[in-house]
Hints:
Blueprint: H1 10-13, E1 14-15, E2 21-24, E3 28-35, E4 41-48, H2 56-70, E5 79-84, E6 88-93, E7 99-100, H3 101-108, H4 113-132, E8 135-136, E9 145-147, E10 154-156, E11 163-164, H5 183-186, H6 197-212, H7 226-232, H8 247-256, H9 267-272, H10 274-277, H11 290-304, H12 308-331
Antiparallel strand pairs: 1-3, 2-3, 3-4, 4-6, 5-6, 7-9, 8-11, 9-10
The structure holds adenosine-5'-triphosphate.
Keywords: ATP-binding, Nucleotide-binding
Domain Protein kinase: 16-276
Protein name: Pkinase-domain-containing protein
Amino acid sequence: YPQQQATGSFSDYFEIPANGTLGSGHFATVFVAIEKSTGQKYAVKVFKKRRKDDGRGQMGLQQEIAVLMSVHHPNVLCLKETFDEEDGIYLILELASEGELFNLIIEKGKLSEDETRKLYNQLLNGLKYLHERNVVHRDIKPENILLTDKNLTCKLADFGLAKIIGEDSFTTSLCGTPSYVAPEILMPSRNRKYTKAVDIWSLGVVLYICLCGFPPFSDELAPPNLRDQIKEGRFDYPSPYWDTVGDAALDLIDRMLTVDPDERITVEEALEHPWVTNKPFNPAMSTDSDASLAGHMQGLAVRRTKLERERTLIADMVKESAVAESKQELDGEEEIPNGKNEI
Length: 343
Ligand code: ATP
């Protein structure tokens, strides 16, 4: 990536204000950076150089740089330039001043359908752009969706795990965050090839979380274990949390969280879905045959009203975790350094 590297050093062009730390991840720390010539604010992601690198950090970084440099879309976080300094590699990124979608969900508990729709129109457009260029993100989660203003403008960020893949190429490396990984990643022997469909699955998990505030798959909520829940595509729309959410949203989630990647909705199809376009949801407009459509709608109804026992269990778990959280706050326990507690 030398051609993208700026001449001179970071401090010739930028300064980091006091209290400018935005957070840190596994490999990098992110600060606000002010461009001296314009006063424009950016984010600078600093990857420390390690004398003995295990290879992962550096490789991930080069991948991230290559991918970020090749994309230009309003809903994909943009890389402005890079500096290779003695103490680290500095990536100058667009600043997402409102932080992570993760924090917004935590703050509000959940989002309304309209708020979520606004986000999804952008996210799907960003993802369509990436998928058209054969870029698979592979690590979509609310922490990697950044907000740039208070009007819910959002961008897909953190391409540390992304890879530009050829249409026919495949990879079997296990990656992603457990709660968001697609079933085919957990069953590599059955389907060694995984592609764009994994992003749709992860975005489906995020959609579910936006609308109710808790994840569809979780070790904490109910047996079986997380991997089996995902592999079986076993999730529910427990009452009362889902009572006020419309069938169109549930239909889209079902189509995104379809275990068979070949059957899963694509980004182009999702952009046409009535929930996304906010057109009246008419199941008859669905691409399903009548018979499978009837089955699908029946399945939705059954899943909305599943066993009382499971609902109570989930409600208890949610309550317990709220109590645990407030207890933690009272105890003054330290937060995870990058503020990224699992939802
Ligand atoms: P990893 O998954 O590799 O550990 P990460 O996603 O945890 O990485 P970073 O991407 O290094 O962490 O980001 C660290 C923190 O900085 C996060 O809290 C993130 O929200 C914040 N951040 C990252 N990029 C930006 C940006 N462009 N604008 C504002 N905040 C950002």
